[in-house]
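[[Sequence with C-alpha cells]]
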Amino acid sequence: MANETQLIENLPFTTSRVIAARARIGMVVLATDYTLEHELRQMVNLPGVDFYHARIANSPNISPDSLRAMGPLITSTAELILPGDTLDVLAFACTSASIVLGTPTVAKNLNAAKPEAKTTNPAFAAFHAFRALGAKRIAVLTPYAKHVNDMVQKSIEEAGFDVPVFGSFNEPHDPTVAAIDSQSLQSAIAKITTGHDVDAVFISCTSVRIAADVAAIESALGIPVTSSNHALAWHCLRLAGVDDKLPELGRLFSL
C-alpha cells in the first residue's frame, strides 16, 4: 500500500519587485507591426525596466479610415496589459493613427484602461524629442502615401516646427515597410538632407527598422536623427523617471 502524501500548505514567503523594479511600461502595438518589439529589445536592456505589449487589430494597408478605426479599440486592448495592476507609462505605438486621432483622444482612451499611467505615442514623443534636441527645421522621411503624409506634415508644423523637405517611399503595405532595408533608408535620408538646411531628421512609422543605425547616420550627417520607435522608447523611459544616458543610441539618448 502506497504511503499517503503529506500536504503542506500556506508555506511562508516574502516578496520583492525584481521584474519592472524601476519602470513598468505598457505598449499597445499594431497587429501588423513586425518591428517595434524587436527595436525595443535592441535599445533598452536596463535592469528593472520592462515593457509589456498587447496587440490592437488593424488593417495592413494604411489609410486615414483604417487608422481611425483603431480609436475605439485602444482602451479594450490596453486593458489586456497586466489586468488589475498599474503601469508607470502606457503608449499607443502608431505614429500616423496618433496624428489622425489626436494625442488628447489617444491619451483619454489609454487612461480609460490605466488611469494612473503617464501616456505617450510616437508623434507626441517625436515632438518632445525635437524640443529636447533644440531642433526647429525637421527633414521628414515616411513610407506613407500622400494623403497620410499631408496629415503628418501638418501635425509637425502645428506643433511649431518647420518641414523644409519631406521624403516618402509611398508604400502603404505595413509588412512591406518592415522589410525596407538599411541601405535604402540611409540612401533616402542622404537624399532628403543633401542641400537642405535642416536641424534634425525624423523617420516616421513604427514599422521602419532604423534605430540600430541612428548613431552611425548621425555621425555621417552631423545632425541628430530619430524615428518613431527611437523617440518613443526615449520618451517612455524619461516619463518613467529612467534618466540613464545611452550615447550608443544617438544624441537623443544622451540627453
